[in-house]
């Protein structure tokens, strides 16, 4: 009897979604064996900064645990440290531009990622180091670095992937997990459009001293993920863990410092209005930080919360190479964008499919992007358990139908919240918006139900 050929799956992109899929396919090899290869355009794992703080929710945690082997799961605490009980709060706090609390959804506080994964009622998140999670997921994964996919050619027997260096690889299934600018998506779904919010976002990591975070926590309800919304369409976000980082060359050796992610967003049209007043060099982090502080002073009132935000941005340009705010991807202005996978009415299911941001880039406002990519990996790996050379299209179609429905809902929900938060409202509109948010907050906490999250 002729031995059946082991099918090959090639994953383009070694981000969280692509790596999770790799582990899931290898983990399930006793049920269905694949020859799995993974390629990434970067020349090494350290070639580019791999992200800031993210929030892993109970759905992302569940899929992650289901996909990875126990050896990897044992190392998750390096990237997803157990919450510091009675000290940290893992959830969202939304305030107005002066720090008055508007909304805090009732997220369940859990002791570790495994409790989050097993949550059956309600919602929870754990603030996570994205770069460290990627490092953990890279363990025992033979990524082929420096391989930029530029196109593919589908044949009756499989798919040829063409790389920028002139090489090519053959596979049975191609998975594009290569981000918002995915060449795989552009070829598979050329009409799937990127939605531009007209919002500029700047984000970085800083080493924040304890005294500064204490002011944020005690005076302005700063908890885990703290977002403040203004009158002019600008928002400020701070995400941190109260786990001290190593102190090297910091001004006060006797004070604890904490890795903190800071965002600032504002309507992009303001850049055109202010073009003659301030010149910004996006290749110079100091220039971008000066621009952010200029915008904060212009758009925010003089108050203690504004002072705290400005002091955080003062930390954004590293004084030494050991500062954790050092990134391989310089601080610069970026466009806020997303992709709704249902913006194209029909997908033709074939040997080529998409995963994560390549299919459904999402606004970061609800922290769903990484979770949805990890869930995609679980759903696709489960669908491929039924793979055969005769029914591969039905496997891919099963995955794409679920992925598109789930993620389109999440993309549009995030878009609604982002647009609500970044729409200039003026003083009267601010009163209406803030009172509405307070009413929603009262209802959510009375019924112990987070309207911003999938529950259960």
Automatic annotation (TrEMBL):
Which SUPFAM superfamilies does the record match to this protein? FAD/NAD(P)-binding domain (SSF51905)
Q: Per the record's keyword annotation, is Transferase included, yes or no? A: no
Q: Which domain of life is it from?
A: Eukaryota
Where does the chain cross the membrane?
A: 6-25
GO MF term (any one): FAD binding
Short name of one Pfam family for this protein?
Answer: FAD_binding_3
Does the entry feature the keyword Transmembrane helix, yes or no? yes
Q: Which UniProt keywords apply?
A: FAD, Flavoprotein, Membrane, Monooxygenase, Oxidoreductase, Transmembrane, Transmembrane helix
Q: Where is the FAD-binding domain?
A: 328-406
Looking up Gene3D superfamilies in the UniProt record yields: FAD/NAD(P)-binding domain
PANTHER family per record: FAD-BINDING DOMAIN-CONTAINING PROTEIN (PTHR47178:SF6), MONOOXYGENASE, FAD-BINDING (PTHR47178)
Indicate what this protein is called per its UniProt record: FAD-binding domain-containing protein
From what organism does this protein derive? Rhizophagus irregularis (strain DAOM 197198w) (Glomus intraradices)
**Taxonomic path:** Eukaryota, Fungi, Fungi incertae sedis, Mucoromycota, Glomeromycotina
